[in-house]
Amino acid sequence: MKLNDTLEQAFNEQITLELAASSVYRQLAIELDLLDLTGMASWMRRQSAEEIEHAEKFIAHLDARDNQAQIGVIDKPEVKITSAVEAFEIALEHEREVSKSIRALRKLCDEEGDVDSRPLLDDFLTEQISEEDTVRTIIGRLRIVGNDGSGILRVDDELA
Fold it and tell me: What is one process in the GO biological process aspect for this record (predicted)?
């Protein structure tokens, strides 16, 4: 069943947000590479690819519902970091933004009577809980090691 225009627009906004999140993760990977934290950079690249996969799932959902996917404007990520913990704090902020957006989309679907989108959105919400928890754990570990180079490198190796 085709989505109404309001829902189509909301799903397209989510697609754009997922692609913007991918762009932020990719820029964070570049920044971490500059700090010679190649394991963390690799982790960020994997997250970037995952965000693209999320966008693809939303695009496929619109296509399956006979709607038109449209990618909106994606701003250049303005990301400059001086530490690993800073990079992961930025990542957590973006994960929270994505979670908030998916919750709002889920609520809108309920308000518009679109029960068919629930499974997709519920799966994403469950995944977002895990994503936020993972990033919070990494931040916690980085805070424990503080400025200890060997500790930072150990976390870096674990994320490779």
Answer: iron ion transport
Question: Is 128 among the annotated ligand-binding positions?
Answer: yes
Mean of pLDDT over the chain: 98
Residue 95: HSE in the Cβ half-sphere, 13 Å Cα cutoff? 24
- Tell me which fold the domain 5-159 belongs to: Ferritin (1.20.1260)
pLDDT band of 128, cuts 50, 70, 90: very high
Ligand-binding site membership of 31 (annotated): no
pLDDT at 144: 98
The answer to whether 61 is a known ligand-binding residue is no
Instruction: Please report, for the chain, the start and end positions of each structural domain, with discontinuous segments joined by +.
Output: 5-159
Model pTM score: 0.96
Closest CA to 76 of 24, 31, 116, 121: 24
CA dist., res. 149 & res. 4, Å (int): 54
Would the annotation count 131 as a binding residue?
A: no
Q: Is 115 exposed, middle or buried, given 0-12, 13-18 or 19+ CB atoms closer than 10 A?
A: exposed
The answer to whether 51 is annotated as binding is yes
* CA distance to 61, 72, 106, 123, 149, per residue, from 3 (Å): 10, 18, 13, 19, 52
